[in-house]
Amino acid sequence: MILEVRDLKVSYGAIQALKGVSLSLEKGEIVTLIGANGAGKSTTLRAIMGLVPPVSGSVQYEGAPLARTPTHEIVRRGMTLVPEGRAIFANLSVRENLRLGAFVRRDGEVEADLKRVFEIFPRLKERIEQNAGTLSGGEQQMLAIARALMCRPKVLLMDEPSLGLAPLLVHTIFESIEEVNRGGTSVLLVEQNANAALKHSHRAYVLETGSVILSGPSAEVAANPKVKEAYLGE
Questions:
Q1: Please, what are the domains in the chain?
Q2: Is the pLDDT of residue 187 over 90?
Q3: pLDDT tens string 136-161
Q4: Which residues contact 42 (CB under 8 A, 6 or more apart)?
Q5: Are 124 and 139 within 8 A, CB to CB?
Q6: pLDDT at residue 222 is higher than 80
Q7: pLDDT, tens digit, 9 for 90 and up, residues 87-98
Q8: Which residue among 12, 49, 156, 219 has the highest number of C-beta atoms inside a 10 angstrom radius?
C-alpha cells in the first residue's frame, strides 16, 4: 500500500466537507474518485497534500503518517498534485515551468526527465520557449501534468485533468495518464468525466456529500445501476 487514507474528516467553518473518507492506493494503480460537484473530491486531494488541515483521521504514505508534514516536504518525498485549473506560470516559458517542477530535486537526471516528458507530450517540445499563458487549454493541461512529472513522483494526484477540454483532447490526456502509470507512477485521479475515469482506472470510489458510498474495481462500479443513472447518463 503506497497511500492509505483512514476516516478523514475536514470542515470549512461549520460546513463538514469530508465525513470520514477512507481509501487506498496500491503501488502501480490508477484509482479514481468520482462524484457530483461538492462531493468532497478536491478536498480529499488537498487534505492528502497537507493544503487543508483535517479535523481527524489519518493519511499514510509509504507506511508513514503525514500528519503535520509540510506540503513541500510531501512533494520532496515523492507525491505531487496536478491542481484543478492547471495553475501554470503564465508569464514563464514552457521550459521554465518544467524546470520549476524539478525545483526540489538534487540529482543529475533532470535533463533525462525533460526528454521523457517530451516523449509523452511532444507538443510541449515544439513550444518549449513559448510563454505558457499563450498555450491552448489542452497544451496547458499537458504542461501541468509534465511539470508534476518533473518532480519524479511515486504518487501523482490529479484534480479534474479533462475539465474544459474537447473530447479529442480528453482522450489524449487519459492516454498520457496511462502512459505515466506504465512508467511506474501510481495515480489518484479526481474526475467528473466518469465514463473516461472508469475506463482508464483500475479501481474507483464514489463520493457523495463527503462520504464514500461505493467502491470497487472500476468495471464493477461502472456496471452499478445507480452509477449508470447518476454519472454515466444511462
A1: 3-87+152-231 (3.40.50.300)
A2: yes
A3: 988 999 999 999 999 999 999 999 99
A4: 84, 159, 160, 190
A5: yes
A6: yes
A7: 899 999 999 999
A8: 156
